[in-house]
Amino acid sequence: MNCAEFQKLLPDIMESGGNAEEEAHLKSCAVCSALVQDLEQIAESARLLLPMQDPSPRVWAGIREALEREGLVRPPLGTARFRPQVAALNPRRWLTGGHLLAVAALLLFAIGILWFTNHATQESRPVATASVPSAVAPAAIDEDDARLLTAVEQKSPALLPTYRENLDTVNAYIRDAQRRVEQDPDDMGARDHLLRACNQKALLYEMAMARFGE
Amino acid sequence: MPSMCNGVTWSLVAAGLLTVAAFAADKHKECRYNVAPGARVTITNESGPVDVKGAAGRQVVIAATTHSDSVEMDCVQAGNRIQATTHVLQHSDARDSRVEYEVLAPPDTSVTVHAPSGPITAEKLRADLTLEGDAAQVEVRNVSNAHVHVRTISGPVSLGNISNGHVEITSLSGDVRLDAVSGPKVSVNTAKGSIRYNGDFGEGGDYMLVNHSGNIEVTLPATASVDLTARSIAGSVENDFPLQQPSHPTFVPSPGRSFAGTSNSAASSVQLRSFSGKICVKKQ
């Protein structure tokens, strides 16, 4: 089994556990092992944050009214069924469904989301708890970068400078956007840049894993 | 003197023999498949160029040239799906592992290319294109009614004469150039790469050009019908195009950092976003 095959089956593996072949690959492959570890950590952190993200019934009612006013949805004929429909987009469903975990490209996107949430919640915490490690420790990302570069160096040394340079580039992008969001949390443009930067890093990982993952 | 002449002669003979040997190692393989409308072709080439062209008829022709026995090209057809893959039999230097692909396909064929080193070129097609390469230079020309997805790490991307396209380009450090590219949705994301757009933004599309530190340069004719916003968070903006102030501005422009305006009937939405690069909008 190679990395591509393993990652294709990752949703099922994460949800129901893997078979002997999949476990053997996981033990022998540092890249996939790190990916699974990160995904588990993110999923766990996200679950902890879900109660804070779940809006109150009043918010759902407000959204429904706004969409009805705009003509985007029809008013319910009988019993209100709106919330279940909107709930289909609720993170709780896709996080517990395991399908999110399948896509390595979403790894860093999720990091960005968690970073936002964590940042927002940290602002309202007492100062004494501000030193609690964030849901996504930056050091973990650095370790992943090192693993990625090691894999590139082993499989295609000539491409190492390209990957190293572009990792530096995208990390700088993430750092700049993070700083800006910290300075001005209401700057939606900066938040958009941060998400895009995370997506770019996800692209780098996805392309590297597709090529060097085996 | 005669000995010198002999030396030159032998050198020429040796060079000639080496050249002949090099060409003799080249192997050409061609696969031909009849396909129905809406066929899919996937090319995976570890090293070397892939050139795809739309052609009349209902046949897909894949021609590959290899330069050593350390690689081979494998073609398979399964229904309306065709796959050509380079197999590296033994690791060798860049030249020996290089394979050159030339593909002719009916214009309605969807094409996917993975070619890390490229270059990748595609033209005269009107179906979905997915082109990926780490350092590959990617060029797409004369494509219509298509989804064009391009992803590179450092490879530059150039698109020309694309109409009614759903275009999505992502590159980390490759420069992106768009000439006469229009469609309902055009999205470009780079980190360090610069973005250049030259054209009129069509009628009624959404255009989003975003980067981190590269520059964004847009050149458009006076006839362009756009609702344009530009913002560089830590860089600068310049506008040389006559824009009218929007009646309902979505944000308050900051001199030197952002501006917004419309021209003509504001048919297309154009958003230019840079983190620290310079955004420049010019009149053609």
Total domains of chain A, how many? 1
Strand count, sense and barrel status of the largest sheet of chain A are: none
Assembly type? heterodimer
Sketch the major β-sheet of chain B. Answer: 12 strands, mixed
Indicate the low-confidence ranges of chain A by residue numbers.
Answer: 48-53, 77-105, 114-140
- Total DSSP helices of chain A: 11
- Give the termini distance of chain B in whole angstroms: 66 Å
Strand content of chain A: under 5%
What's the order of the H and E elements of chain A?
HHHHHHHHHHH
Anisotropy-based shape of chain A: flat
Rg of chain B is: 24 Å
Residue-averaged pLDDT of chain B? 90
The count of β-strands of chain A is 0
Termini distance of chain A?
8 Å
Total number of helices of chain B: 1
Report the helical percentage of chain A.
Answer: over 70%
Describe this structure in words.
- The complex is a heterodimer of chains A (214) and B (284).
- With 214 residues, chain A is mainly α.
- Chain A has one domain (3-54, 90-212).
- Chain A is built from eleven helices and no strands.
- Chain A has helices at residues 3-8, 10-16, 20-28, 30-53, 57-69, 82-87, 91-97, 106-124, 138-155, 160-183, 188-212.
- In chain A, helix 4 (30-53) packs across helix 8 (106-124), helix 8 (106-124) runs antiparallel to helix 11 and helix 9 runs parallel beside helix 11 (188-212).
- The longest helix of chain A has 25 residues, at 188-212.
- Chain B is mostly beta strands and 284 residues long.
- Chain B has a domain at 156-284.
- Helices cover 8% and strands 52% of the residues of chain B.
- Chain B contains one helix and 24 strands.
- Chain B has one helix at 2-25; strands at residues 27-34, 40-44, 50-54, 59-66, 71-78, 81-88, 99-105, 110-114, 120-125, 129-133, 138-144, 147-152, 157-163, 166-171, 176-181, 185-190, 195-198, 206-211, 216-220, 226-232, 236-239, 258-263, 268-274, 278-283.
- In chain B, the strands form two sheets. A twelve-stranded mixed beta sheet of chain B has the order 1-4-7-3-9-11-13-15-17-19-24-21, with no helix packed on it. In chain B, strands 5-6-2-8-10-12-14-16-18-23-20-22 form a twelve-stranded mixed beta sheet, with no helix packed on it.
- In chain B, strand 5 and strand 6 (81-88) form a beta hairpin.
- The radius of gyration of chain B is 24 Å and the shape is elongated.
